[in-house]
Write a structure and sequence with these properties.
It comes from Athene cunicularia. This is Carboxypeptidase M. Keywords: Glycoprotein. The strands form three sheets. This protein has an eight-stranded mixed sheet, with helices on both faces. Strands 9, 11, 14 and 15 form a four-stranded mixed sheet that branches. The protein has eleven helices and 15 strands. The radius of gyration is 22 Å and the shape is globular. Helix 2 packs parallel to helix 3 and helix 3 crosses helix 10. The protein has two domains: 294 residues, Aminopeptidase; 79 residues, Sandwich (Immunoglobulin-like). It is an alpha/beta fold. The structure holds zinc ion. The site of zinc ion has 3 residues, from loops.
Length: 426
Amino acid sequence: GFFSRTWWASSYHHTEELEAYLKGVHAAYPSLTHLHSIGRSVEGRDLWVLALGRFPTHHKIGIPEFKYVANMHGDETVGREILLHLIDFLVTSYRRDPVITRLLNNTRIHIMPTMNPDGFEATKVPDCYYTRGRYNKNGEDLNRNFPDAFENNNASIQPETQAVMNWIKNETFVLSANLHGGALVASYTFDNVTGSLKGYSRSPDDDVFIHLAKTYSFNHASMYKGMGCDRQTFPEGITNGYSWYQLEGGMQDYNYVWGQCFEITLELSCCKYPPADQLEKFWRDNKAALIEYIKQVHLGVKGQVTDRNGNPIPNVIVEAKGRPHVCPYRTNEHGEYFLLLLPGTYVINATVPGFKSMLKTVEIPDNTGNFSALKQDFSFSEVSIRSRAASCPKTPLYQDLELASAATKPTLHILVLMTVMLVAFK
Ligand SMILES: [Zn+2]
């Protein structure tokens, strides 16, 4: 590796060592990495992100963006350290290991080892259970601090949260995971519900989320066994977030609803802040799972929406029939869309709101091993089509939907009918 194994095992990387490590990696691999800070914590610490890939500094059309975020709870430390191992493994395997080489040539991987550096530094006495270091300097739980899709979140948005929200807005993230500790399970959206639903809060992409969570748990040394910690058990090492416990303002629901990014929450250690001499084993237990999970960014279908002259059309709604998102997924500034879908037959609907829809039936193969989703472009036969920018307010969208659903059903039927007629007349 980049540094000696004994150095790895000696201790945790505190702020200065973490920055020195990331700068060292970037200096050693300048064309494969891009190091930047997406903002600052309450106490002014940089929120570092290392982007890795063949084109690390910017998005390339067709290359999906992936992210790992760790140490959002400052006293949950395993993710912070194993992401440093992951960085070392990726850079040293490039052009040596054919799988990692293809992965980095076809994916842009963003790694944020700590979202809450203040909480980490505030944790003076490592504890397996709860400490104040969970929170940021203002005493806020960052994983309760995001806008919520189901109810009003009254928490004031913290600098760390705002930095991540801006980052999500500025990159076309497709897949993500959020690394925590204090349990051993892969948990998936939704974490919250509307009303009095019991037991399970299912998203329209529940099948995909189950697959994503199982990809992690079954490639982990023991998570798939479902033994959890203490007396908790999780069949196959996965759980719906809400089934485990309800929470408001979490980051994974935010990514899915407003970020067009599928995120799961990985609980990686029964002990939140274990002794440093266990970190090497945590890396070994998670290594294959971390890599296999990144490959899933190539599930499904992707493409570009253009007009007759080949100019990209941003803000076009592109969704798979039967799985509408409450805030519809739209093309980015390059007219690109990415939809994570399991192998099967789907109808993909590209709609310029108020103007026209195009439907295409696609047969999605299992192609994560090819490091590319199925490619399906849409070309509208007109020129200079404009699609208005998305208006998706940060209000509880599902709550609105439920309250309005009884009143708007006839309107929705008319909308569907109009879409069908537009397609028929095309
Ligand atoms: Zn946590």
